[in-house]
């Protein structure tokens, strides 16, 4: 079954280009698009997308508000922020708000397609290098570091190992190889970690791990 994508961007030319790239893969389908997030909840309800790709800066309802509205839904689709700059403070806010990750608008077509598939499987799609730069740019305040360490203290030693691997940007398969676990066991651990940390997704787990290491 094809991965369904909802695309939000105020530039029609950009939307058209992204649609062409995504639909070059027979397993991806753009089910709807809009110039901003004004109707995002209606579009999600009507089309049931697996992934929402949203620009950050749009007239009307912007990408940060899209993140807030969509991630508050039960059984919400993954939300990925589109941006021109990889160290955009709006992107950092979106990740903390529950977005699964972000894509640069100059991402090579093959990587864009792969990223959407990764996100649809429930994994973060930010590359480890970009994640490190983003988190270094917006380092946690001391109080945030203390709180992150307190939250991580509630994890078991194995859960802590898995969380730290997530913080390095490892995929489920990579974590399984590193820790000699099955992928299904890794998924169980990640589910428990997210529950204990009150994290909406693995990106927020990664942020907590990095905050605790400041």
UniProtKB/TrEMBL annotation:
GO terms for biological process: phosphorelay signal transduction system; regulation of DNA-templated transcription. Residues 148-213 form the HTH luxR-type domain. Residues 4-120 form the Response regulatory domain. SUPFAM superfamilies: C-terminal effector domain of the bipartite response regulators, CheY-like. Keywords: DNA-binding, Phosphoprotein, Transcription, Transcription regulation. Signal peptide: none annotated. GO terms for molecular function: DNA binding. The modification 4-aspartylphosphate is found at residue 55. InterPro entries: CheY-like_superfamily, NreC/VraR/RcsB-like_REC, Sig_transdc_resp-reg_C-effctor, Sig_transdc_resp-reg_receiver, Tscrpt_reg_LuxR_C, WalR-like. This is Two component transcriptional regulator, LuxR family. The lineage of its organism: Bacteria, Bacillati, Actinomycetota, Actinomycetes, Pseudonocardiales.
């Amino acid at each position: 079954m094809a991965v369904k994508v909802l695309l939000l961007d105020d530039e029609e030319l950009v939307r058209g280009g992204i649609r062409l790239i995504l639909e070059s893969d027979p397993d991806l389908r753009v089910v709807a698009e809009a110039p901003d997030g004004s109707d995002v909840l209606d579009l999600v309800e009507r089309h049931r997308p697996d992934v929402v790709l949203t620009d950050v800066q749009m007239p009307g309802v912007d990408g940060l508000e899209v993140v807030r509205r969509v991630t508050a839904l039960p059984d919400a689709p993954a939300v990925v922020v589109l941006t021109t700059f990889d160290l955009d403070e709006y992107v950092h806010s979106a990740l903390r708000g529950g977005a699964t990750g972000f894509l640069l608008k100059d991402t090579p077509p093959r990587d864009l397609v792969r990223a959407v598939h990764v996100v649809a499987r429930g994994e973060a799609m930010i590359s480890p290098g970009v994640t490190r730069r983003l988190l270094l740019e917006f380092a946690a305040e001391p109080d945030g570091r203390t709180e992150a360490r307190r939250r991580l203290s509630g994890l078991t030693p194995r859960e802590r190992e898995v969380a730290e691997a997530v913080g390095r940007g490892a995929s489920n398969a990579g974590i399984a190889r590193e820790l000699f676990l099955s992928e299904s066991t890794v998924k169980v651990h990640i589910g428990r970690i997210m529950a204990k940390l009150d994290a909406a997704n693995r990106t927020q787990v990664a942020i907590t791990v990095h905050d605790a290491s400041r």
